[in-house]
Specification:
The protein is α/β, with parallel strands linked by helices and about 400 residues long. The protein folds into two domains: about 140 residues, no CATH class; about 140 residues, Transcription Regulator spoIIAA (2-Layer Sandwich), CATH 3.30.750.210. It is built from 13 helices and 14 strands. The strands form five sheets. Strands 3-4-8-7-6-5 form a six-stranded mixed β-sheet. It has a two-stranded antiparallel sheet with strand order 1-2. β7 and β8 form a beta hairpin. α9 packs parallel to α11. The radius of gyration is 24 Å and the shape is globular. The chain starts with 10 loop residues before the first helix and ends in an 11-residue tail after the last helix.
């Protein structure tokens, strides 16, 4: 029997593509690619890499020869030919972990140091430099090895920060992390799908029912998404407690309104047990449909961790008209009694968010427990990179 290529993928592989903390064992474990002994790992929503790898295999390449596909990770003995490396400590300086302060234990005196006047410096002339090639192309970042991060919390946090900074497909560099005698090589993320491509993916002939092998068994995960509609991918919130950035990225990929309406009608007409209630019309975040950067240049080069924290980026499009129109059209469909919004709402949109609810008619029906958790705890809002609970009051 010929050897079959092994390829872990999905959100489980996405969040374990580097050395990672494992909750069950309370340890830092190696990349799942190492432990699974697979040939290649695909992270993120893998339509592009899956199609490219399948086509290249069909054209006669072996799995060992396919090493440069975006959204994939492989094992290597050294950096790929033609690539130059930069140590991660040149991009981000690992710092010490400050102790948690005791609220009643402060005994420091008031500061009495007088400000020091800045030294006068001679003005320097500005010279115009010719445009340089994109420095991130054919450049990889060498992360601290697994052996180092498993016993050093500072280096672990440093490696995680670098991973988050290298998630923009327009400017992300490859990543490399040593595991024993070999290295994990992580190619940059894939280019996001266009609206037309998203529509084609969601138009495939899915059955929307569990595999017949399950019989009549009740599947809790299926019950949760049975009448749910995914309208977009990605999230530019950048919450530090969330895994969406590592899996889907920050660039919003939205389906067209027609594609979404067609799926609602398909559920209404074909899914057994449908009573007229759509359990969710959302995605990673409920109020980011069709929102994206208004500047193509900024979108291609930005490494900002959040587009809305500490304040909304001036390049961000905050027009909720597409969302309003979608809600209105969906509610008017024959046979649809109610549409719930069970996806989390990002409060960083301030007045733009409340205007969305007011102009859409009735506020979306939703469960308060599913709002973003960082919005309720004022003391942890900064740590979570979330808007504070002051954003709740206007609601």
């Amino acid at each position: 029997m010929e050897r079959c290529a092994g390829d872990p993928r999905g959100i489980e592989a996405s969040l374990r593509r580097t050395a990672h903390y494992d909750y069950w064992s309370d340890t830092v474990r190696r990349s799942v690619l190492v432990d699974s002994k697979a040939d290649m790992l695909m992270f993120g929503n893998g339509e592009r890499p899956l199609v490219e790898v399948a086509h290249r295999l069909a054209m006669g390449e072996t799995i060992d020869q396919i090493r440069d596909v975006r959204n994939t990770a492989i094992m290597v003995k050294e950096a790929l030919p033609g690539w130059s490396g930069v140590d991660s400590t040149r991009l981000d300086t690992p710092g010490k972990i400050d102790p948690i302060p005791h609220p009643y234990g402060e005994d420091l005196p008031c500061a009495d140091n007088k400000p020091v006047a800045p030294k006068k410096q001679e003005a320097k002339s500005i010279t115009v430099q010719p445009p340089r090639p994109k420095p991130w192309e054919k450049t990889y970042v060498l992360l601290p090895s697994f052996e180092k991060v498993k016993g050093d919390k500072v280096l672990y946090a440093h490696a995680s920060r670098i991973l988050h900074h290298e998630t923009n497909p327009g400017c992300a560099r490859a990543l490399m992390q040593k595991h024993g005698e070999r290295y994990i090589w992580i190619n940059p993320p894939a280019i996001p799908l266009s609206t037309e491509e998203m529509d084609s993916v969601f138009a495939l002939p899915y059955k929307r029912v569990p595999h017949p092998s399950y019989g009549d068994a009740r599947i809790p995960a299926y019950e949760m998404i049975r009448f749910s509609i995914n309208i977009m991918r990605g999230c530019f919130g950048g919450c530090s407690f969330c895994s969406i950035t590592e899996h889907e990225g920050r660039i919003i990929q939205s389906r067209s309104e027609d594609s979404i309406i067609n799926e609602i009608e398909a559920i209404r007409d074909t899914v057994p047990g449908f009573t007229g209630v759509i359990s969710d019309l959302g995605g990673p975040t409920a109020n980011m449909y069709m929102l994206r950067c208004k500047s193509p240049r900024a979108e291609q080069t930005c490494r900002r961790l959040s587009c809305v924290y500490p304040d909304i980026c001036p390049h961000m499009d905050t027009n909720h008209e597409p969302t309003i129109n979608l809600y209105r059209r969906a509610r008017e469909l024959k046979g649809i009694k109610k549409i719930l919004i069970a996806s989390g709402v990002r409060y960083g949109h301030r007045g733009r968010r409340s205007a969305l609810y007011q102009r859409a008619g009735d506020p979306p029906r939703r469960r308060l427990s599913e709002d973003r958790p960082g919005a309720y705890r004022r003391g942890t809002a900064v740590e979570d990179d979330e808007a504070g609970n002051g954003q709740l009051r206007p609601l």
